[in-house]
Design a protein that fits this description.
This protein is an alpha/beta fold. The protein has helices spanning 5-29, 34-51, 75-85, 90-93, 125-138, 157-168, 189-192, 198-204, 217-229, 263-281, and strands spanning 66-69, 145-150, 174-180, 208-213, 235-240. Helix 2 packs across helix 9. The structure holds thiamine diphosphate. The site of thiamine diphosphate has 20 residues, from helix 2.
Length: 288
């Protein structure tokens, strides 16, 4: 798929709106995970907008591809994308983490809203993905299963059991995406529990490995398209992203892993995103 300049511009603007909604939701709740929600918002949006088979009229369509947010603490990014698709009413976004809201700090399964699986306890999403991929094969359903993992999350041993199972059952309908932002909640992933050489580890477990610059729309889309054409084994995309995305003072730091911005930080963060938005509208494409 080739993107026209106009499409690219629209997608970039949509992603910025999503990131602004993420910040607004977390600011309003005064609780949540801005860094890792911002880092992966573009991936979740591109999956739903450009890659996955979905029915915008019916989130429960039985042929849909399945998305599992294994790094459940990035729930605000998922909710903001589902609201862009029309599955969640925009006003609902701002009930994040309120008592009785459908939009809790970590996703609670609610297929009517497009929330496929409850997650939040790290390390579970890939095993669930293996189950969904096996079930799809048994049902002769040609759906794909996409699982978004955090890189810190890979410290969970259960992930590696699922990696083995994915290879054992030759699950070519299973695609894992790693948000390789390099930071988890207490510091850098390499300091806390080293992951490198990460690509070689997944290859040794029998997975097809694709590495992408997660800030480049075209590269991400090409990576997903390549995945669809590789048969006989599961695939993983190691996506190099930035914790905090374009918000300068949230980048590459654990400080905003699990802390909401205060009013001053929120205003500054929105301003930074709005400046990028203005440049895109003026035709200076900032390729997220
Ligand atoms: C089983 C489990 N242990 C600990 C936590 C607490 N926790 C929440 S986020 C996080 C760090 C995750 O880091 P990473 O996967 O790199 O997330 P990202 O940087 O993408 O936000 C931890 C340890 C959890 N949610 N589940």
């Amino acid at each position: 798929m080739t993107l026209s300049v106009a499409e690219e511009k629209r997608i970039l603007l949509d992603i910025l709106e999503i990131k602004k909604d993420v910040l607004k939701m977390i600011f309003q709740a005064q609780s949540g995970h801005p860094g890792g929600s911002l880092s992966c918002a573009n991936i979740i949006y591109l999956l739903y907008n450009n890659i996955m088979k979905i029915n915008r009229e019916d989130p429960q369509w039985n042929k849909r591809d399945i998305f599992i947010l294994s790094k459940g603490h990035a729930a605000p990014a998922l909710y903001a994308v589902l609201s862009k698709l029309g599955f969640i009413k925009r006003e609902k976004l701002f009930t994040l983490r309120q008592f009785g809201s459908d939009l809790q700090g970590h996703p609670v399964k609610n297929p009517k809203l497009g929330i496929e699986i409850s997650t939040g306890s790290l390390g579970m999403g890939l095993s669930i993905g293996v189950g969904c991929a096996l079930a799809a094969k048994l049902d002769n359903n040609d759906r794909m299963i996409y699982v978004l993992l955090g890189d810190g999350e890979l410290n969970e041993g259960s992930i590696w059991e699922a990696v083995m199972a994915g290879n054992h059952y030759k699950l070519d309908n299973l695609i894992a995406i790693i948000d390789r932002n390099g930071i988890q909640n207490d510091g850098s992933t390499e300091e806390i529990m080293a992951l490198e050489p990460l690509a070689e580890k997944w290859k040794a477990f029998g997975w097809e490995v694709i590495e992408t610059d997660g800030s480049n729309l075209r590269e991400i889309i090409q990576g997903f398209e390549r995945c669809k054409n590789i048969l006989g084994r599961p695939k993983v995309i190691i996506s190099y992203l930035i914790k905090g995305a374009e918000v300068s003072f949230m980048q590459h730091t654990q400080k905003y892993h699990g802390r909401a911005p205060n009013e001053e930080e929120f205003t500054l963060a929105l301003k930074e995103l709005e400046n990028i938005e203005k440049n895109i509208k003026r035709g200076i494409i900032y390729n997220d």
